[in-house]
Amino acid sequence: MKVVAFNGSPRKKGNTSALLNLVLDELKKEGIETELVQIGGTPIHGCRACFKCMTNQDQRCSQDDDVHAISSIHHMMLMNEMIVPGSSYWNMAVGFGAGDVEKDDEGIATMKTLGQNMAWLLKKLKS
User: Fold this and answer.
1) Which CATH architecture has domain 2-126?
2) Model's pTM, two decimal places?
């Protein structure tokens, strides 16, 4: 099993990266392989409703100049009947300056719970 996290923040070592690593750390504790992919700072567009994916009948987006938005990723997951785990609250923490999220105890707990929920789900699906 492997979990890939996508960092959409342009700050490679910022608060978002810190939060993603909290989630990934919980997964690693359970023996699950992880990878963090940096996409922030690259061109990202949502669906442009051009319908070329339907016209071409290849189930591929005609946009090849970006890595696409998170809502598109979520929609693709749900359309393919994937199970998307959550946490005890919104999967977020509050921070403005670098490292501020490390002071948000509720946000840290939320990220750790998300990682634990993901590990539990992955193990259930594998068994």
Assistant:
1) 3-Layer(aba) Sandwich (3.40)
2) 0.72
